[in-house]
């Protein structure tokens, strides 16, 4: 194959305004981070609530959480995205519908759809991690917490969750990374995140290989930084005297 | 005066009856030892006292308050009863100090200083003041169990429940925990102890309860229990000969 690599392409003008191709990547990365972080925060909160629900006594709350998990885990992500972007808005109350379809600029409505989609999808997975973490704790821990007079809420807050979250930092890290990778589905509904900008660069400049190489490097560096960040967090909250902790 | 009154308590897991019509009481300042073979329902019985195990029949009155009454504020009741577990169950993510103070602050509403003072007082009493800033995982089993006792005492309990507090310990650590318990008994603490430490029972118990298959088979004064072996039930004699053999 005879391909002329041209790494200078990123500093060349796109022909639109004074933008160079690198600007597109920077803005794409910005959207990717904005989507992933917002979706992650919601997923973490919602997933924790659902995970706790699955471990509560009684029937109703665990059943609701289980149904949620099964639903969101078993429908393909893309189907969910199209539902949130193309179908659900049609069923919103009139004023909301107009707001979503007409008042918002297209990037914002795509952003909202993809954040909702990724947040709810990932919440189901976070839920399962949180549930596993809680169930991995010795049963005596909740008995001891109740025995000192804690309410159920205090038992979770002060005793069960702080331990469960420490246990599940590694699987949560991979969910965190997944949400960044999954955010690339946003390109399918026109949100100009990193993948969309990469495709656009490839089309405009015809430097396909350079564009996708740069995108690969950016995703890779992003993932590596997140992994480093999470292992710092893990170290920071490590319990002295516990397995792997400082004696 | 009865501190813990257990009245005709029965409990089932599905079809399986774990407790059968259990009746006994523990008076203020009394030390009652509960023993019996594995699976006889000792843990279940002692956990019904602070409602960690619900029961279907009968009632338990702790200091005048009914445990079975759905209107009873269980967290409040539990906060007044200390409990010590076989596996210590300190909160491993909290330092020893935090283990001693968290419930005082969050449940009893004590100030940090007050909780700290109380916690340190009891930590000193179990001889572990030097370990205050460590974490449970950094202590030996015997030390952890002493901290667990201090944690319970810091709540100023009206009675203490022990569920085999020494059976998870290496033999050389059993005595350091028993010593603390003996001291407590001498100070007049009301205690209900599931234990197979018959030396402890001989030394400080007022009464000994023997359970078998979910029922209270023997419930008598210590002197009678150990002194008049011939009057004991077949099962109790078998059990005693087994655990006293070594
Ligand atoms: N959650 C449960 N579901 C069904 N059966 C149970 C449950 N918990 C305990 N049991 C049964 O109830 C019986 C009494 O258990 P318990 O733990 O009170 O016995 P124990 O006297 O404390 O025994 P050990 O000396 O082994 O601690 C046992 O036969 C046990 O198998
Ligand atoms: Mg037991």
From TrEMBL, chain A:
Q: Where are the transmembrane segments?
A: 29-50, 71-88, 108-127, 208-233
From the UniProt annotation, give the residues forming the signal peptide. none
Its Gene Ontology cellular component terms are: ATP-binding cassette (ABC) transporter complex
Question: Which biological process terms from the Gene Ontology are attached to this UniProt entry?
Answer: amino acid transport
Keywords in alphabetical order, please.
Cell membrane, Membrane, Transmembrane, Transmembrane helix, Transport
- Protein family (similarity comment): Belongs to the binding-protein-dependent transport system permease family. HisMQ subfamily.
Q: Does the keyword Transmembrane apply?
A: yes
Which NCBIfam families does the UniProt entry name for this protein?
A: HEQRo_perm_3TM
**Protein name per Swiss-Prot or TrEMBL:** L-glutamate ABC transporter membrane protein /L-aspartate ABC transporter membrane protein
One matching Pfam family: BPD_transp_1
Q: Where in the cell is it found?
A: Cell inner membrane; Cell membrane
Q: How does it sit in the membrane?
A: Multi-pass membrane protein
Q: Tell me, what is one Gene Ontology molecular-function annotation carried by this entry? A: transmembrane transporter activity
List the coiled-coil residues: none
Residues in ABC transmembrane type-1 domain copies: 29-230
Listed InterPro entries: AA_ABC_transptr_permease_3TM, ArtM/GltK/GlnP/TcyL/YhdX-like, MetI-like, MetI-like_sf
Automatic annotation (TrEMBL), chain B:
| Cross-referenced SMART domains | AAA (SM00382)
Q: Where in the cell is it found?
A: Cell membrane
A GO molecular-function descriptor = ATP hydrolysis activity
Name recorded for this polypeptide: L-glutamate ABC transporter ATP-binding protein /L-aspartate ABC transporter ATP-binding protein
Family as reported in the entry's similarity comment: Belongs to the ABC transporter superfamily.
Q: What does the UniProt keyword field contain?
A: Amino-acid transport, ATP-binding, Cell membrane, Membrane, Nucleotide-binding, Transport
Cross-referenced PROSITE patterns: ABC_TRANSPORTER_1, ABC_TRANSPORTER_2
Pfam name, any one: ABC_tran
Membrane topology of the entry:
Peripheral membrane protein
- By its UniProt entry, which InterPro entries does this protein fall under? AAA+_ATPase (IPR003593), ABC_ATPase_HisP-typ (IPR030679), ABC_transporter-like_ATP-bd (IPR003439), ABC_transporter-like_CS (IPR017871), MetN_ABC_transporter-like (IPR050086), P-loop_NTPase (IPR027417)
Limits of the ABC transporter domain: 4-238
* Cellular component terms (Gene Ontology): plasma membrane
């Amino acid at each position: 194959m005879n391909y002329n690599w041209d790494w200078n392409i990123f500093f060349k003008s796109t022909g639109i305004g004074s933008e160079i191709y690198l600007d597109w990547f920077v803005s794409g990365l910005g959207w990717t981070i904005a989507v992933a972080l917002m979706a992650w925060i919601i997923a973490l909160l919602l997933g924790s609530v659902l995970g706790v629900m699955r471990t509560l006594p009684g029937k109703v709350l665990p059943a609701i959480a289980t149904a949620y998990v099964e639903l969101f885990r078993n429908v393909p992500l893309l189907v969910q995205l199209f539902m949130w972007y193309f179908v659900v808005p049609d069923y919103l109350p009139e004023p909301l519908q107009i707001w979503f379809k007409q008042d918002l600029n297209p990037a914002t409505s795509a952003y909202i759809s993809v954040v909702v989609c990724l947040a709810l999808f990932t919440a189901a997975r976070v839920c399962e991690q949180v549930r596993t973490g809680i169930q991995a704790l010795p049963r005596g821990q909740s008995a001891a917490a109740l025995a000192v007079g804690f309410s159920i809420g205090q038992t979770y807050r002060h005793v069960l969750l702080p331990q469960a979250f420490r246990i599940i930092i590694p699987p949560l890290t991979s969910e965190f990374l997944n949400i960044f990778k999954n955010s690339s589905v946003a390109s399918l509904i026109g949100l100009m995140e990193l993948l969309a900008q990469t495709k656009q660069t490839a089309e405009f400049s015809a430097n396909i290989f350079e564009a996708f190489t740069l995108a690969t490097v950016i995703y890779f560096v992003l993932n590596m930084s997140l992994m480093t960040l999470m292992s710092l967090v893990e170290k920071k909250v490590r319990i002295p005297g516990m397995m792997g902790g400082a004696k | 005066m009865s501190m813990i009154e257990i009245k005709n308590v029965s409990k089932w897991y599905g079809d399986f009856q774990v407790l059968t019509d259990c009746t006994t009481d523990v008076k203020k300042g009394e030390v009652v030892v509960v023993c019996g073979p594995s699976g006889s329902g000792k843990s279940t019985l002692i956990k019904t006292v602070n409602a960690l195990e619900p029961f279907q029949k009968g009632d338990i009155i702790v200091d005048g308050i009914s445990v079975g009454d759905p209107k009873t504020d269980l967290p409040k009741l539990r906060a007044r009863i200390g409990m010590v577990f076989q596996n210590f169950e300190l909160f491993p993510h909290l330092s020893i100090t935090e283990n001693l103070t968290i419930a005082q602050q969050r449940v009893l509403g004590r100030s940090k200083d007050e909780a700290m003072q109380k916690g340190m007082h009891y930590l000193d009493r179990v001889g572990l003041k030097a370990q205050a800033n460590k974490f449970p995982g950094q202590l030996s089993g015997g030390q952890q169990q002493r901290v667990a006792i201090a944690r319970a005492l810091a709540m100023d309990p009206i009675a203490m429940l022990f569920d085999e507090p020494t059976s998870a310990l290496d033999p050389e650590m059993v005595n350091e925990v028993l010593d603390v318990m003996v001291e407590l008994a001498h100070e007049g603490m009301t205690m209900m102890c599931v234990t197979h430490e018959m030396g402890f029972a001989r030394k400080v118990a007022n009464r000994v309860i023997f359970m078998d298959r979910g029922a209270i088979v023997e419930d008598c004064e210590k002197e009678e229990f150990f002194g008049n072996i011939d009057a004991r039930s077949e099962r109790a004699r078998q059990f005693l000969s087994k655990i006293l053999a070594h």
